[in-house]
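Q: Convert this sequence to structure tokens.
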Amino acid sequence: AVLRSPESSDPFSSVTGRATPTNFDAEKAAPLVAKTRDPILRLLLANRFEQPEVVDTTLKELLASKKPQLDAYLLASGKATVNEDHVRAAELLNKARYLPMQRDLRAQVDAAIVASVLAAKEAGLVKIAADGSPQAADADAESKDSATAAVDQSAALLEAGRAACLRLRQTRLDPNKRSELIAAMEDLGLKREAEKLDQLAATQPAVS
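A:
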């Protein structure tokens, strides 16, 4: 397909997956990518033809726009996730949720926020104290300022992840997704809320 990258880890696969096979001359098409006027199309084409500099430049252009586009934030967060920059991915997704979108997509964005925060926690970028408060990810921080910044980052990520969990709690969930959400809530320090959701689920019929 014209828009599909040959890499299986393509951060834009969810967007380009609908592309249909077609015949084209790759050598002639590649030089035209940077001249493509539509930035989203340019971004997808740059990814297809493995032009990382064009991808990065276009993403910066899109994210700096006074009229933010949902696609830009979703694509940028996808790229950050592939690069294992889970903090950046969570930040972008948290900004994206303020843009207009359909309800189902909003739930997917919240789920992605939770996944990014959990990944950041697994990577040691988020730590939670016994009382549920955030801790500095690096206990051996060289200065008070860096330690404070680490706590602030943990706090921001935790707040985003926990808020997304609580929003997802209000959506229709099948048993598997509910179990995953309960586990995520417990992992992010929302133990009381997780227990309540588990108890509530036990009194309700499963969602088909």
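The mean pLDDT is 84.
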